[in-house]
Each structure stands twice: as structure tokens, then as C-alpha cells.
Amino acid sequence: MSPTLERQRRLVIDVEKCCGCFACAAACHEKFIQFEDEGPVRLYSAPRTCGALCDACQRACPVNAIDLQLENGTDERLTTSKLTWSVALIPCRKCGQMYTTEKLRRLLVEKLQATFESLGQPPDWIPLCPRCRRDEEAYRLRAATRTFQSF
Q1: Left (φ > 0), alpha (ψ -120 to 50) or beta: where does 73 sit?
Q2: What is the C-alpha separation between 66 and 62, in angstroms, rounded?
Q3: Which of 68, 139, 142, 144 has the most CB atoms within 10 Å of its CB?
Q4: Is residue 97 one of the residues assigned to a domain?
Q5: In Å, how far are 3, 49, 83, 127 from 80, measured between CA atoms?
């Protein structure tokens, strides 16, 4: 058995847990995990086995949807095939652009709820895409500047 195949680990994705945040793709130094937004879904692809000697993708996943299992043997189907999965996207409340997933939106609200409650502000920016968030923030800054200048 070749040394490379001895170190192969099978990538197992729990699609039900995956929130579609693409942290795994960003963390993969080898760029084995790829994603692309296509219409109403975010499509992912990755090799079924990984020879990289790290667990960056697994550590980056905020919902523990990734498992790396040691592979025994040389099953060609595992080493040459791709793993694919998809997560549905939701639209921006303002412009309608598909930008995130419902699971990720809920996760953000859950993680940030206490912070926003302590500030007395609702997390009203979460249902907005990055462009609309930027536009909203620019509007708020202009409004605050005008109010400040009137004193």
C-alpha cells in the first residue's frame, strides 16, 4: 500500500447539520472543498477522501457537520469520486438577491441575540445581503451626521 493511501481519510458531511457558511472551504489550505452559489442553492463539492494532514475544515465548521474518518484499504471509487451536497439559499429582504441560508441566518440570530438584547437593538441587518447592509449603514451614518451637524 502506498504511503499516500495509508493516510487517506474519508470526508463525511452531515448534510442535515450543514448550515452553508462555507467556513470549511475557506479553511481548507489545499482548496479541496469548493462551493458555488447557483440560483437558489449553494453547491459544494469535495473529494471523498483527503490526503491532507490537517483537520482545518473540521475545526472551522461551526455546527460540527464534518467528520474525517481514517480509511483502510485502497478503494478506487473513494479516491477518484467527488462528494457533492447543496444548501438552499434565501433572498435579501431588501433587494431579493440570494445571499445566505436559513440555517446560517438562524445561527447568527441565536449567537448574537444576547448581545443585541443588551444593546436594546434588534439584529435588523441579518436579513440583508452585504451590499444592502453597507447601503443601510451608509444611510444611518449620513443621517447621524446631519443630526449631529444641526446642533
Answers
A1: left
A2: 10
A3: 68
A4: no
A5: 17, 8, 10, 39
Domain shared by 77 and 124, yes or no: no
> Within a 13 Å sphere around the CA of 140, how many CA atoms are in the beta-carbon half?
8
Number of domains the chain contains:
2
By residue range, what is the domain housing residue 134?
A: 102-149
Within 21-81, strands assigned E span: 34-38, 41-47, 49-50, 66-70
Per-residue pLDDT tens digits for 5-35: 456 889 999 999 999 999 999 999 999 999 9
Helix (H) or strand (E) holding 142: helix 130-149
Model pTM greater than 0.85? no
Nearest partner of 104 among 82, 135, 121, 129, judged by Cα: 129
Backbone angles phi, psi at 53, to 5 degrees: -95, 50
Distance CA 15, CA 44 (A): 11
β-sheet bridge partners, residue 46: 83
